Structures
1.
Amino acid sequence: MATTASTIWWCRRDLRLGDNPALVAAVEAARAADGDVVPLFVLDPRLWAAAGAPRRSYLARSLAALDEATGGRLVVRHGDPRDVVPAVAREVEAGEVHVAASFEPYGVQRDAAVEQALPDGGGRLVRTGSPYAVAPGAC
C-alpha cells in the first residue's frame, strides 16, 4: 500500500498565509509525510446564496490573491463541502485535511459530516486554531 503524502489545507474564513495555525499544521504534516499541501476552498452554495454582491466580489478578489500567493495551486470547487472535501481528499490521496475550527451551528454540523465522510477517502479532519483572535469558549 502506498504512503499518503498529500495534505489538504481547507481554507474558509481565514485566507491569510501568515500566522495561520491550520496552514502551519498542514505544512508540518505534509513535511513529515514528504508530501505537498493542497490549498482548497469550497464555494458552499448554502453560504454563497446568502452573500450579497459586495461580499461575493470581495471573496473573488481574495481567492484570486490567494491563488497568486500560492503559485496558482489553490483548488476552488463549488458544491456541498460534505461531498467536495472527501472527493478532493480521494483525488489527491490526502491523509489529512487541516482546517480552522468552526463554532457556528451550521459549521459544526458540516464539519462533523465531513469528518465522517473522510475515512471513505482515507483521510482525517484535523481542526487547528480558530478564524477568530480568541476562539469562542477560550476565555
2.
Amino acid sequence: MRQNETIIRVRYIATDQMGVVHHANYFAWFEIGREEYFRELGMSYKYLEQNGIFMPIVEAYCKFKSPARYDDQLRIITRLNLLQEVKLGFQYDIIEVEKNTPIAYGHTIQGLVDKNGKPLVLRKQNPFLWKFLQENVFEKKD
C-alpha cells in the first residue's frame, strides 16, 4: 500500500496552557497528510476540485497515545486504505521524530460529491482518476 510521509513541527499556537497539543490539531494534521499524499501522486485538492470532485469528511477518528508538545517534530504517515466508487478512506499515524514515539493514529472517510454536494461515482465522473488510483495506490498481487 502506497504511503506518504510528511514532517511538521508543532507550533506554539497549537498547544494549550499545559503545553500539550490541543486535540483538534490532529485532524488538521490528517488533512495535511491527505494533501501531501495527493501531491505525491501528482495532483492536488485544487486539481480535484477543478475536475468537479469534492471530498467532505463523513467519518473521523483519532486515538491519542502520547502527548505532542511545542516544537516537537512529527511525522505524519498517510495511507489510502479504502477506494470505493463513492468514497475514499485514509489511515494516519503520527510519530514524534526524535524519540520515534507514537503520538496518535486514526482514520477518515471522505465522501465523493460534486460542487453541489451531490454524491458522485468516481468511475463515471472521472474514469482516468479512478483507474489511476486503482493502479497506483494498492500493490498488485501476483
3.
Amino acid sequence: MRVLALDPGSVRIGVALSDELKLLASPQEHIPAEPFAGFLRRFKDLLREKEVDLVIVGMPRNMDGTYGDAAARVREFVSVLKEAVPIPIRTWDERLTSVQANRVLSQNKTRRDDRRKKVDGIAAAVLLQSYLDMQGLTG
C-alpha cells in the first residue's frame, strides 16, 4: 500500500506517490482543478490503480503558523474528498513546498515553461517526503 499526496491549487492539483515501503516520494502528475468532477474521477482512479491507503493534502499556513483564506479552501476541499472516498485523508503543513520545488527545477536548469508544468507534482513530492520522514522519526 502507498501514500498519495495532493498539493491543491486553484488551477492544478499536484500529485505525488510513495513507494510501497513508504520511504520515498516521487512526483506523478498534476490534475486540472476544474472541472471538479473530472479531478474527482482521476483522483479515485489513482487511489484504485496505485493501491493507496492514505492521502495527505497540503495545508497552507502563514509563516507565523496561522491559517488564512487558502487554508479554509483546503479544509472545504478535504471535507468533500472525505465524503467521496473511504480512505483516510490527513492534512500536512505545506509551507515553502512550492519554493523548494522551484529551487529544484531551477538548479536542474529546467526551462521556465517546463517549470510551470512540473512544479505542482514536485511540490506534492516535497510535501509527501516531509510527511514520510516524520513518520520514520516517530513511527
4.
Amino acid sequence: MQRRKPQQIARELALLSLSQLPVNPKKLDKLPDEQLVAKLVLGAVRTLTTEVQDTLNNAAGELQRSNDRLLTSQTRASDLNTARTMLQEAITYTQTAINQLGTAVDFPELIQLANQDKDVRNYAKELVITVDENRNLIDKMISDALVDWQVTRLAQIDRDILQIAVAEMNFMAVPPSIAINEAVELAKRYSGDDGHRFINGVLRRVTEHKQTA
C-alpha cells in the first residue's frame, strides 16, 4: 500500500464498513477505540466478502448463459455474437472480483493504521455518523443528479461511495474537487470498470445542482 493520508485510509474503512454497521451508528461514539476498530474492520471484511461473492456469481451466471447459447444455437451469427457478449461480461465480472480480492492484501496494514492512528479512527467514525444522520438529504441530492436511474437501484458499493463523497462536500467542508477525486479512486478499487466514470459524472452533477440552487 502506498503511503496515504489518514483521511484516505479512513474513507476506505468507512466505505467498506458503512453497510454493515449497527442501525444507530451514533453508538460508535461510546465504544473504546479497540472495539470501534474491531467493528469497522469486521464490517469491512463482510462487505468485501459479499461484493466478491456477488461479482463471482454474476460471472458464473454469464458463463453459463454463454455456454447454453452456444450449445443450443445452430452457429448462427447472432447466437455467436450474443454468446461472445456474455463471455465478455463474465470476463469483466471476473476481473472486478480479482481487483476486489487484490485490495484484501492491504487489509493487515489498514488494520494496523486504524489501530495506531487516532485520526483514522475519528474520521472514519465521523464519516459513518454524518452519512447516517443526513442519509435522506444525501440520497435526495444523489437522486437529483442521476439520469434515468434511482438511488435504490445502485450497486451497494457505488451508493456508499456516492454517499460518503456527498457527505464530505455538503456536511464536512471538504472541497468538491477533493471529495470527487477521492470517490473516483475508491471506485477504481472497488467498483466495476466503468464505475469510476459513473461516480465522477454523478458527483459533478451534484456540485452543479448545488451551484445553481
